[in-house]
Amino acid sequence: MELEADILEFRVPTENNKTIFIWDIQASLSESHIYESLRSVYSAFGALYLVKVCPNASVVAPGFYALVKFYSAAQASKAQRATDKQCLFQDAPLKVRLSTKQNPAFLSAAQSLSHAKCQDLANHYLGYNGWSTHIITVKDISKCADVGWSLDPGSQGELLKYGCVMELTVPQHGVTCRGVGVAEEVVDQEKGPEEKLWKRGKLMKRARDKAVVAAFEKVLLIILANGKVAVECRTDREEILPDENVEGVIQVNDISWSDFEVGSAEEDDLPWNFTTDDSH
Questions:
Q1: pTM for the whole thing?
Q2: Distance CA 276, CA 111 (A)
Q3: Which residues make Cβ contacts (< 8 Å) with residue 239, sequence separation at least 6?
Q4: How far apart are CA 73 and CA 92, in angstroms?
Q5: What is the end-to-end Cα distance of the chain in Å, rounded?
Q6: How many angstroms separate the CA atoms of 103 and 195, rounded?
Q7: How far is residue 161's CA from residue 157's CA, in Å, rounded to a whole number?
Q8: 179-231 pLDDT, tens per residue?
Q9: Cβ-count burial of 71 within 10 angstroms (0-12 exposed, 13-18 middle, 19+ buried)?
């Protein structure tokens, strides 16, 4: 029985039932061709977080196997059922299985998506013109660094720290939410003002990207059975964000900046689990 609605979050999909494995891929095909073919086939079922192609181990027959990870468990299951034992892009049928055993490495809290993947997921379900962001404030908060912060003795470095508040809007769904991002780096004063100017621009962009990610983390995409999408925004009553007319001042004491320092997961760091469901 199909779920009537599927709820997607802007976080790295950690559940293994969102992953399918494909093997018996022919050796005559190139990795790039396999990658593009898999992405084309499976993106028709829903947004993809990851597509990865690898050559078979030397102890087995030449060829390839692949991993495809969806944001939705329902879409992964549907894709597995529809493509198992099908030839798709080659002459021989493929074997496609859904991973079912939970990997302990995935039991911790889900990590934030990267800025680029947030955009990809939003574009897939909302359209390129279906959402927008704009800056509420971006500010140099270097002097607001922790009181106990200090450089190594004899260091010529200077701490640069920027904070940003971004607003995310999904106009067709009447949804608006905000996110905070902070970025910091130590600048070597001996390298001159050009180095400081370059790093200042870099930090402002990083803070903006983190703020956009933080805003997307509050968004829930509700995929209905008929394919339509609804959007909801989670609110945190304890979070205090500045209003638009605060002249660029971020209320540092009212925001837990550490909440927005979580780094984005790297695809290659995700452990693979080859336990599959052979009941199909």
A1: 0.78
A2: 24
A3: 180, 255
A4: 27
A5: 15
A6: 44
A7: 13
A8: 999 999 888 777 777 888 888 999 999 999 999 999 999 999 999 888 889 99
A9: buried
